Amino acid sequence: MNKLLIVTTGGTIDKIYFDDMSDYQIGDPQIGQILKQLQVGFDFEVKALMRKDSLHLTEEDRQLIHAEVASSKATHVLITHGTDSMINTALNLADVPNKTIVLTGALNPARFHDSDAVFNIGCAVGAVHSLPDGVWIAMNGCIWEPRKVRKNRGKNRFEANPDT
Questions:
Q1: Taking Cα atoms as reference points, which of 78, 113, 82 lies closest to residue 12?
Q2: Alpha-carbon dihedral of residues 68, 70, 71, 72, nearest 10 degrees?
Q3: Phi, psi of 124 (to 5 degrees)
Q4: Which helix (H) or strand (E) holds 137?
Q5: Alpha helices per DSSP H over the chain
Q6: Which residues pair with 149 in a beta bridge?
Q7: How far apart are CA 86 and CA 55, in angstroms?
Q8: What pTM did the predictor assign?
Q9: Pairing between strand 134-139 and 142-144?
Q10: Please, what sign has the CA dihedral across residues 160, 48, 31, 99?
Q11: Rounded to an integer, what distance in angstroms lies between the CA atom of residue 50 and that of residue 43?
């Protein structure tokens, strides 16, 4: 496999909280530091494309993500993304040919001790290295096709979409 391209868009995985009122900012991408600390056995490049909560992503933002992924020479792409609109972005990338694209994020910021970020990143890395071409979502220890998953806000997790 060539160098893994990691595109960061913001989301909870990179959030920094400042007070009890949940005031936050999207900070620097955490995935590069996490992978370096884990001493991974592959080359990667982190491209910080934007720092947005996924609820604030626009169609123009999704087109920018699409253009970045489609124009890259990388055949394996991992995207960190906010969980609220991750599925929308994944569906937007469905027409990118000849690439394995995996989106992941976190339900708690990577800076938090009890964050799911490292676990989700690990699952996404394994997925992007082993899955066939296409677009996938790696969350909560599972890998899904974007049309077959939903975010269950009440249970704060991703799960199979019963409508598919």
A1: 82
A2: 80
A3: -65, -40
A4: strand 134-139
A5: 31-37, 59-71, 86-92, 117-130
A6: 160
A7: 9
A8: 0.88
A9: antiparallel
A10: positive
A11: 22
**Inter-CA distances, 116 with 96, 102, 104, Å:** 28, 16, 11
* Structural domain range at position 14: 4-160
Token pair for 68: 């970045």
The tokens describing 122, both together, are 């690990």
Q: What is the pLDDT of residues 26-80, one digit of tens each?
A: 666 778 788 888 788 888 999 999 988 888 899 999 999 999 999 999 999 999 9
Q: How many domains would you assign to the chain? A: 1
Tokens 């799960």, located at residue: 159
Give the pair of three-digit tokens for residue 33. Answer: 């530091």
User: Any idea what the CATH number is for the domain that residue 27 is in?
Assistant: 3.40.50.1170
75: exposed, middle or buried (C-beta count within 10 Å: 0-12, 13-18, 19+)?
Answer: middle
Residue pair 43/91 in contact (Cβ under 8 Å)? The answer is: no
